[in-house]
Specification:
mainly alpha; 76% helix; 0% strand
Length: 240
Amino acid sequence: MQCFKFIKVMMFLFNLLIFLCGAALLAVGIWVSVDGTSFLKVFGSLSSSAMQFVNVGYFLIAAGAVLFILGFLGCYGAHSENKCVLMMFFSILLLIFIAEIAGAVVALVYTTMAEQLLTILVVPAIEKDYGYQTDFTQVWNTTMEELHCCGFNNYTDFNASRFVKENKVFPSPCCANPGNHTVEPCTEDKAESMEVQGCFKEILHRIRANAVTVGGVAVGVAALELAAMVVSMYLYCNLK
């Protein structure tokens, strides 16, 4: 009985932390969506190097909503000893765990396919919004400057863009030499001669260079999820 009470309290506290983290992510996601410029000013390069190729605000809102709901279900299920809620908590967590495993396998085995899929999504956005959508442009400029890269694949991503067609120049990071000294103006010939690689390849390189850290974080998250599922099932099976 004492063991059951201890596990119940620990599950409540653990899910309370998840609930609060979810609320925080929701708040940040709404902030980014409503006023992304001020977010970049506050966090600088840290905010731009994490997820440049998706809408960060919507991603944070989605992640925050999932954590918020999971935390609520875990807290309520543990406190009220409601078997239905505990089973719902377990089921959602199991689906997330399976999706993460599938995503990791796809990322490791089908990197080229993922690059092609992202190219289909990202390059048209660059062609349409770069230079004209303030938040989008600022994120890309900061990303290219911090990672010393150009575009998603390379400078050719800007060939059909409104920015290049109207200004007749490419973004300055596309003409940065190894010492990060930019050649101005950045014309197509200069961008081609500089051979600055795309940001996707640069991010992959950095992830692989820090594979141990990335893998450790992934294993830690998976272990927490497994522990939460085991605890929820323990409570479920021991409730009358």
